[in-house]
Amino acid sequence: MRVKKKEWKQQLPQPLDVVWDFFSRPENLNDMTPEKVSFEILSDVTGLNMYEGMIIAYRISPFGGIKMNWVTEITHIHEKSYFVDEQRFGPYAMWHHEHHFEAVDGGTLMTDLLHYKVPYGPIGTLADRLFVSGMVDEIFGFRQKAMIERFGS
Fold it and tell me: Which architecture, in CATH terms, is 4-151?
């Protein structure tokens, strides 16, 4: 399977400082993830702001209760502009997620750019077509709704 690219944009009616402050705290990931994924942060990140080189371990259950460990690293940060998280261990053959933030009239424009690859060759390609791609879209759709609840629309 080739690397897939997905992009989501969302404008929030809050200043860049407010939005950046929320996203720069890994403990807030729980608020952006659907309950059915059973997302659990294993690393002690309470009260910490992210930094380059930060390793965050999670446990997720995205497929019918099957528990998976996932480890990501914050690889790049440009304060109040963007940060990147990359999978170091987990369910994907590759995961590279860029979070971009831009001050615009009336608030902040967020852009998520995701590149990912499902493992297992042709079986992974089929799994991506049948449910992985849809699950990724569902998670990011949930996140957009959660951000409207938190910051307004």
Answer: 2-Layer Sandwich (3.30)
